Amino acid sequence: MSEENPLRDQILEISRSMLFNEGYKSLSMRKIAKKAGVSATSIYLYFENKDHLLHTLIEESVEDLSRFIEKKALPVGSCIDRFKAIIRAYAEFGITYPEKYEIIYKVRSDSMARYPKEKFRKARRAYELLVKTIEESVEKNQMDVDDPLVAAYSIWAQMHGIVSVVLNGRLDSRINREQFIDDSIEHVIQGFLIRAAVT
Amino acid sequence: MSEENPLRDQILEISRSMLFNEGYKSLSMRKIAKKAGVSATSIYLYFENKDHLLHTLIEESVEDLSRFIEKKALPVGSCIDRFKAIIRAYAEFGITYPEKYEIIYKVRSDSMARYPKEKFRKARRAYELLVKTIEESVEKNQMDVDDPLVAAYSIWAQMHGIVSVVLNGRLDSRINREQFIDDSIEHVIQGFLIRAAVT
DNA sequence: TTAAATCAGTTAACACTGTTAACCTAAATC
DNA sequence: GATTTAGGTTAACAGTGTTAACTGATTTAA
Predict the structure, then answer these.
(1) Residues 132-161 of A with CB under 8 A from B
(2) Per-block mean pLDDT, blocks of 10 residues, chain B (199 long)
(3) N or C: which terminus of chain B carries fewer CB neighbours within 10 A?
(4) What is the per-residue DSSP string for A62-118?
């Protein structure tokens, strides 16, 4: 991951912390440079432009998220339990490492529009784990899903919605945070399990 | 809504279209002004600053979304059908009016962090309709929900996740868009309906 | 050993950004 | 007819991303 350069790493770390603490709009190359004790243009020795710097931050966070999910879910034997573990791990990562999670979605880089999928190349591993888990569950008649690919994307989207509402502090003040997360996870899971219709 | 000023309205419209067509980052007061055939500082006669201009755009879009949902769901008699209508209307609005929907979530204004909930004051109507519908369904034993308030928020979050994945073009190329939306809506709904456990 | 090349940074400058202060001018009001 | 107000203007400030040209040290090559 690290290209073996201390200044480059320092720039990334400073950017991460400034993004989280001061927000996206006030992040400037000059401020980063000043904090690193270096001239603004030095950043361009390691990153083509501001966009690429942000993009690097995003990729690192996505990689972290993937690793986190794999660590939590890969060892789980039962496919339904693994399914639940993936979903819970996703939420747990977002809540536990908001400064990393928020970078993935909050940072708006110009290059994003140009190669939007490239961004999630590294999320592929976790995504494919979810697809495979769903396929396995469907085979065992434990899940009610037409297309595992679609289902996996849908779950990912739903979970992102849930986590981001929490992180953005948009939760109704009457609503308890933990209860919201747990309930939501439960409902997302329930939406995919096999069911016997009540008539 | 409109404060009866043609230039003010024109500024809003130009901003909206520039936001959608050229993106958030390239939106500048000077460009807006140039397109309106007026000096940059004239914008400040109608909006305190760039943030307030963006904020106004957001509020208008949120109001539109609320009206859209009410129009589609209010006339529906059966509470379960109304529940489904609200969810479907949300998605339909996002897909049909992406330039309005995206403003709600994509525009990052500095004031957002300061009064994050204020932003959704006007969404309250649609939100409370959802809460009431869920409460009614729970009373009639047609829905499996602990806390309707929490459930409503959860649904809102999940739907946002789904719509934004579609609008951002982050959908896997192998996945059909309409199928994704329909399947996702169905799974979200299923997650809240009453179920008989399969053991 | 010395000359050339590369590395790691610098300064100065350009074209842009949001925003403020001061000014102007035509219309409305007293 | 004088004065206020509405609806703009221009000039300027401080900050932005980025480029080009430069510097000085270190490494490499002859």
Answers:
(1) 144, 146-147, 149-151, 153-154, 156-161
(2) 77 95 91 96 96 92 95 97 97 94 79 57 84 97 92 91 84 89 94 71
(3) C
(4) HHHHHHHHHHHHTT--SHHHHHHHHHHHHHHHHHH-HHHHHHHHH---HHHHHSTTG
